[in-house]
Amino acid sequence: MQTEQDLEQLVRAYTPALLRYCTGILGNEHDAQDAVQKTFIKAWQRRYTLRDG
Fold this sequence. Notes:
By secondary structure, the chain is mainly alpha-helical.
């Protein structure tokens, strides 16, 4: 994930599954949306330390 387009692809691909997972754990969709958003922000901020694969 090196470009904003890479991030956009990941967000589109994984948001639905992450929302379902987080909603199950957190118990409500609002908190789940916040958690998913924070996850993608953190991944973007640390993108140069992430390994491919």
